[in-house]
Specification:
Layout: E1 2-7, H1 14-33, E2 41-46, H2 59-76
Parallel strand pairs: 1-2
Length: 77
Amino acid sequence: MRFGVTASRKVGPAVTRNKLKRWCREYFRALAKAGNPFEVEINIVFKPMDKHFYDGLPHAEFIKAMDRGFHNIGKNL
C-alpha cells in the first residue's frame, strides 16, 4: 500500500500540517503491521476548514475518521 498526504498552507501553520502528516504515517504503519491485505494507492487531502479546526482535533477523532474512510474503501474493492 502506498499513500500520500496533501496539506496546503490554508490548513494551518507548519506545526499543524506536520502533526496531521505524522498521524497519517502512524495510522498506515499500524495497518501494515496488522497485515493489511489491500494493494491500493491513497492520497489523503486535508481541506481548509474553520480556523483552528485541525489544531483542536483530538487524535482519537482523527483515528475514528480514518477508520471510517478506510472501511469505505474496503467495501468498494
